[in-house]
Amino acid sequence: MSQPTLTLADDGVATIRLNRPQHLNRLHREDLQVLQRQLAALAVEPRARVLVLTGQGRAFCAGFHIGELEGEDDPRLFEATVDALEALPLPSIARLNGSLYGGATDLALACDFRVGVRGMELRMPAARLGLHYYASGLRRSITRLGLPAAKRLFLLAEALPADALQALGYLDELVDSDALDAAVARLVQSLAANAPLAVCGMKQSLDELARGAADLTRIAARVARCAASDDLREGRAAFAQRRTPVFRGR
Q: In 3-state terms, the chain is what percent helix, strand and coil (to 5)?
């Protein structure tokens, strides 16, 4: 068993892997602290273009270690970690190699895209444990899935199979396990092929608008930055010349 690992490939694809397969990749306090440091590093890493978050073994993640819920000196540690993932400038993909439970349901939802495998399930047991979930996690479920779906996840505390997750909009793609890597690779390639300034700027603006926290001045600044960018000039030139653009994020 070990803490999450971060790798960055030459093509700019970053991968964070959860590494406690014997315990379904449950997250301990030290894992969350490591994740926060990794996300902070990626936020300022100019080579990074896309993040893939995944787990090792038969499950994606079992959420926060229940034995560490009591006596926390930092009760917002899990919430802050997931919020940092959502706020990451890079587009992110949850590669759901298996089932997910508890806080892991929000961890995956904080990513921009989710690809799951047939046979997986999701369960949010907060109501069965007597927990009131933290506000940003509830907000994320409402803004990304809608209020009826959020109530189904949180109030019923039932295990939902993969087909139901796709119908709810939780999964963007559902594939056989042997097709998972190819499906994730297609999303990665599409995201990495687009202009980084436009992708990152629109990701941030979309999330802010969805949660009612949009600053129109800040959005206008992103629009202006893209309008003055080398990437826009390259995109126009490539379109006119009928070739593939080469974006450099500036």
A: 50, 15, 35
